[in-house]
Amino acid sequence: MKHVDEYRDGRLAQVLAARIAREADPLASYRFMEFCGGHTHAISRYGIEDLLPANVRLIHGPGCPVCVLPVARIDAAIRLAGRPEITLCTYGDLMRVPGSDGMSLLRAKAAGADIRMVYSTLDALRIAAAAPEREVVFLAIGFETTTPPTALAVRLAVAKKLANFTVFCNHVLTPPAMQSILDSPDRRGLGRVRIDGFIGPAHVSTVIGTEPYEFFAKEFEKPIVVAGFEPLDVMQAILMLIRQVNDGRHEVENQYGRAVRREGNTRAKAEVAEIFELRESFEWRGLGVVPYSGLRLKEKYSSFDAERRFHVVDMPARDNPACECGAILRGVKKPVDCKLFGTVCTPETPMGSCMVSAEGACAAHWTYGRFRDHARKVS
Amino acid sequence: MSPRAYRRKLDLENGRVDLSHGSGGRAMSQLITDIFHKALDNAWLRRGNDQAAFDVAGGRMVMTTDAYVVSPLFFPGGDIGSLAVHGTINDIAMAGAQPLYLSASFILEEGFALRDLKRIADSMGAAARAAGVAVITGDTKVVERGKADGVFIATTGIGVVPPGLDLSAEKVQPGDCVILSGTIGDHGVAVMSKRQNLSFETDIISDSAALHGLVAAMVEAGGRGLRVMRDPTRGGLASTLNELAQQSGVGFRIMEEALPVRPEVAAACELLGLDPLYVANEGKLVAVVAPESAEPVLAAMRNHSLGRDAAIIGDVVADDHRFVQMMTGFGGVRIVDWLSGEQLPRIC
After folding, report:
1. What is the pLDDT of residues B111-127, one digit of tens each?
2. CA Rg, chain A, in Å?
């Protein structure tokens, strides 16, 4: 497959692996966080850890939009879907995320709620146009990558005067989350993890560009390499990070030049800025309340805001106390450190959100890497 | 059945299934005669009994049953009718058996177009004739609108196993070879390309096919070296290998680079965030074969039109954890796990 196979070439991977092994200082250790679930998935799926020396460790970050959505918001979505007049549309990944009391959107659907899995915001608009008697709510989640399509849907709904279409907005921003990980988490009782550099987001950066990371590189003196989601991209980013650490540099470098510019996608950014505004704070699973990290619809578009139309209130909800998703999302713990991992929590019966999405650290490790946990090697 | 004089001919252009077609009266008789008997015609059906009688040979017989609820009903490379024939024949063939007869039950939804029903029955008849396996008895029910999705078909099949052959998962041993008969993911991607909310342009057609001819060639070439065979339908190759690993108490080690995947299928999966290892097939089989039989079986498969892309994709290893591991094309190792839930497109 053109434009894909080139980035998965096994021979080139060996060349990069040899270079990494040569340049990594055997007396040092390198701990890099890949922020995005897309990277986590690629690392596990292609077995990238097998190609790295033992002193280069990857720490999975919180960049899985399904994983960071707090239980309270899932509960609110389930309550919305339970209203007889509402058709709730959402991306498939969210269906199995556990809410309170063992409920999930999938179970709510089985119990009779009108919940539709859609592949794009435009599908939700079509459903709204075809059923004017229904209140169609689009459950919007995701980082800067999925925000422009939601903005577009709102703009189209305005143009088409679709009075029965609203958005339950849970869009979040990457830079505040990165800052939250670096910015004195121990003082907030969240535990700390040593990070020597970041593999920066791929798709998010196609929208926001590399410029927003420059502050972190400078302020926290951490190198950041924005990288694509293909395995060779990840390998190359690791090499670039090792070089920065060895040189004592902390810059923002762009490995993903084929898709990312410093200024990002100005049109998409303008579209988002037209429709959305910052919330003063938003709760993340794992990171707690992060200031200015979430988006909501502007007052001007309030008639398309499901939270306003249906008076959505977040009721306090708690994660399963034994679930370590929070610490895992911050890179403080590994999936195997959680008592629930692989015992009661598996992709079939997820207890925590990290086990739901294929991009979650637990699901990725369970699905692709758990054989490494068994000391006994397969003959 | 002798021709009966119905007052009006069945309107195969614009007519629709109504509740009278399932009532047991004249309308039902007309539907069965004009659509099903015409399409599936054979000596047993012509006798019009509630059952079909036939002679049995000595030896071991196999029996299997399967229900077909595919959506959409028509997809590139087949439809629910041909699928209901191929799928059940393949389940028989996986025992190394020669399929003999099929039965078919139709559950029709009120309002279903007779034109589409005829098209499905004709396709079923064509598939059965091509496979040399007759549909010798059947049943028709009609349910109210909204209680089904157009048409559901259940087929049962019986077949006979060649003397001395006994394929079973517990025969699998470390060192055995794993052979795949051809490209994976074709059926699932072809069907998905026509789903209402997902339609995309592609030339991919379903691989739906009856595999008993290919199996007969393998049995002849491999004999007792054949351990077990499965057709990787729902859940794809990954699920089939995991099922075998569980039942056989072994592990599998496969090589990603050895897996035949059509570039179009790989591209569609890439776009939808799917993994071809988990996408359904309807005309493929995976066989575990003793190492000394691997080459002759592979050669026999490649000589058959349905096994031209056959390949050895890995081997069986001793593993208490019963993992299916894969050497990735990238040079790492990972598990190929059971499919959990439905494969869902990734959102970012």
Report:
1. 999 999 999 999 999 99
2. 21
